[in-house]
Amino acid sequence: MKNNSVITLVTGGNRGMGLAIAKALAASGQKVIIGSRNLDKGKSAVEKLAADGLKVDVIQLDVTDSDSVTAAAQELMEKYGYLTTLINNAGSVFDFRIEPSQISQELIRKDFEVNYFGLIDVTQKMLPLLKKAPQAKIINISSMMGSKTEALNPQSEVYKAVAVGYQSAKAAANMFTVQLAKEMTRNNLPITVNAIDPGMVATEFGGATPEQAREMGAKSIDVGITRTVALATDFENKDNATFTNISGPVAW
Ligand SMILES: NC(=O)c1ccc[n+]([C@@H]2O[C@H](COP(=O)([O-])OP(=O)(O)OC[C@H]3O[C@@H](n4cnc5c(N)ncnc54)[C@H](OP(=O)(O)O)[C@@H]3O)[C@@H](O)[C@H]2O)c1
């Protein structure tokens, strides 16, 4: 498959890593559409990319709003007819540093709405478009925070982190990744499904400023998107049901 016939949708593409992924893939020659829950924010992101000479499209897409996801899938089908790559990047954390014994159901549900149910809703509704491409891939932006092995590893950078709602939602999204990958394989569909850990990256994630994140050891956005961009531009499309970061496999 040639790069210029690739059509990629990046959810949460109006800022942070989503925007940087969109920029890198558009620069590589792919047709890129960013999903943005606030269309105006999405439009200004697209304008910034246009100033750099990159033509990227935008679509309104709130992953927690079923009607928004349905409308986006319909619009994409009408405008483009297929999708080659879905990058489930939209994500949010609502529960940093709250003890598991104290966290409210409300916060856990918020974590799951975006990072798990939203990801599943977008994936299910975009699958008809992905099935229309000769080969396709789904990349789920997960996190090492969702790894139970790393949560139990005293040497791990996430050992001391406590965000049980977010971590559980990412762990659940990892299992969805594995099960969907197996379903695609069982049905002989040329669609791969993989999860990525970008590492700790200096964005506005969790309400911190990129500067604050950097002080805590976060890496640059360029480093954070490296593995995702590598997977999104791999036309052999061999990796399936993997969980990786820039250094290789991550323990589930
Ligand atoms: N930064 C890190 O250290 C880190 C580490 C591991 C994994 N991750 C994961 O990487 C992904 C990108 O994070 P980031 O660091 O780039 O964070 P970010 O700068 O906070 O960007 C998050 C993006 O997700 C969007 N979003 C949030 N809720 C949404 C919803 N309901 N529907 C659609 N879009 C929604 C945001 O849109 P608005 O602008 O409208 O809020 C924004 O575009 C997330 O999945 C995150 O969990 C991040």
From TrEMBL:
Protein's UniProt keywords contain Oxidoreductase: yes
Coiled coil location: none
Pfam families according to UniProt: adh_short
Key words, A-Z: NADP, Oxidoreductase
Family per similarity comment: Belongs to the short-chain dehydrogenases/reductases (SDR) family.
Protein name, UniProt field: SDR family NAD(P)-dependent oxidoreductase
Keyword check for Oxidoreductase: yes
